Amino acid sequence: xxxxxxxxxxxxxxxxxxxxxxxxxxxxxxxxxxxxxxxxxxxxxxxxxxxxxxxxxxxxxxxxxxxxxxxxxxxxxxxxxxxxxxxxxxxxxxxxxxxxxxxxxxxxxxxxxxxxxxxxxxxxxxxxxxxxxxxxxxxxxxxxxxxxxxxxxxxxxxxxxxxxxxxxxxxxxxxxxxxxxxxxxxxxxxxxxxxxxxxxxxxxxxxxxxxxxxxxxxxxxxxxxxxx
Length: 228
Hints:
Blueprint lengths: L3 H5 L3 E9 L2 E12 L3 H9 L1 H7 L3 E3 L6 E4 L4 E8 L3 E5 L9 E9 L5 E9 L3 H7 L2 H18 L7 H5 L2 H20 L4 H15 L23
Antiparallel strand pairs: 1-2, 2-8, 3-4, 4-5, 5-6, 6-7, 7-8
């Protein structure tokens, strides 16, 4: 786990937009290469028992057209499944989730190396995007990518709740927020907008010790992936 902070810098990130029906959706994409076979990465992302070891317990009818539910987190429908390369699901959290989908793509990159991509497409309320930007979901997905990498190496975090209170976790989330800010800037966002979003995201995920540990209910990102 000691290299978690360095791994944050090894994740590629992109921020963009996409039309969805008559609305404009926001997109965040992360890409990371793992030292594992594509079949192993796919299995880790689709086998319920393995998912519970590196992410969250999951229940439901886990097949094309079925529905899933992550414990204390998002749920939805399995919209597309093309083993062992592509999975697309709706990603719904909260009473009024709106449009939100996640797609995972797994691509072999040589012997025992695999490129993992995750793209989250969602229609985000303007006030939430203005306050947090892509980091609202991006930080959680970065932590997910770290957990998957640890799992693929045969490791685990024995007490995730305790780890999230550690200085290592705080540094990971701070750097993740900054890196998503850089991706936001690369998408064309003005500097002052990026700076405000990074401040909001960092304050939420990694508040200073003297600050409250949770934001007010009105400011909480409604699609935070690691909300469990």
